[in-house]
Amino acid sequence: MKILLTGGTGFIGYHLQRKLVALGWEVDALVRPTSDCNRLDPVVTPRVWNGHSGSLCDLLKQSNPDIVFHLATHFLARHDMDDIPALVRSNIEFPSLVLEAMRVAGCSRFINTSTAWVHVGPLANEATSFYAATKQAFDQILRFYQTAYQFQATTLTLCDTYGKADWRGKVLSLLISAALSGQKLEMSPGEQCLDLVHVDDVSEGFIQAARLLQNGVTGTFSITSGRLISLKNLAQKVEQATRRKLMIDWGGRPYRAGEIMLPWQGGVPLPGWTPMIDLDHGIKGLLS
Questions:
Q1: pLDDT of the residue at 122
Q2: 148 vs 141: CA distance, rounded Å
Q3: Which pathway features in its UniProt record (predicted)?
Q4: How much is the CA Rg of the chain, to the nearest whole Å?
């Protein structure tokens, strides 16, 4: 199997590429000149894109992948006016150019990455941020390519992810670091819930989606732990695992505007996939 991966130097891509290589799959990574290619596995081939649409078509022809995995994203929980161009370029323009380059190169299998943040509101179809709105917009563009050009595409909807080598500054990493260092934290009241899935399980989800896609099975599927945990209870788990008392001022800061208290739990489960790493074992793995 030949894979072209966008977002290969990101957190999930970092772990996914290594699992693909371990399976014996051939992996190319679509990167920019400024990308940190030290995050790529040594056997992954970097395909450096200079930003011109014509060269992107050439790169797709050179790579000639069986499937394109699209993980690249630009995430911001909140935005201001200056952030909008980068969000649109990264989350709408870039993946749209990839689809068009695939069409020109004769590639038609695509696995997209979406977010549970696009599923809020009474009908669970509203975006909770401008970032999520850009993901929704690209979903519509992808559907166009499926209808107009018979692309075979699957979208995986992700919730919160965690695991080793996580440089993103997510809340679980923050809690573990504070427990080990004794740092004091000011946090919200802590009643909001998280749906945490280990990055190894997420990677297995992408691999299963690729196998299904090979057999003609497409759709929009959810990657979820199936178990919500409040921020306060997550802090308790970190205390138990580290045997350290967290110094947290609960309510020291307000909830963020538009805070999601209960993550979306709808959607169709990915056929043949089940999370294997529960949160207790996942936290212990981070500490080891």
A1: 63
A2: 10
A3: Bacterial outer membrane biogenesis; LPS O-antigen biosynthesis
A4: 19
Question: How far is residue 251 from each of residues 15, 186, 189, 191, measured CA to CA in Å?
Answer: 35, 7, 4, 10
pLDDT in tens, 77-116: 889 999 999 999 999 999 999 999 999 999 999 999 999 8
- Phi/psi zone of residue 227: left (φ > 0), alpha (ψ -120 to 50 degrees), beta? beta
Question: CA–CA separation, 58 vs 52, rounded Å?
Answer: 10
User: Structure tokens of 45?
Assistant: 């081939």
The beta strand positions in 208-246, using DSSP E, are 219-223, 229-230
How far is the C-alpha of 127 from the C-alpha of 119, rounded, in Å?
6
Q: Report the 10 Å Cβ neighbour count for 27.
A: 25
DSSP secondary structure letter of residue 91: I
Q: Which two tokens stand for residue 7?
A: 């977002």
Q: Which two tokens stand for residue 237?
A: 């788990």
The total of other beta-carbon atoms located within 10 Å of residue 251's CB is 12
The answer to pTM > 0.70 is yes
CA distance 27 to 2: 6
Cβ atoms 49, 17 nearer than 8 A? no
User: What domains, with CATH codes, occur in the chain?
Assistant: 2-161+197-223 (3.40.50.720), 163-194+227-265+276-287 (3.90.25.10)
Contact 194, 261 (CB under 8 A): no
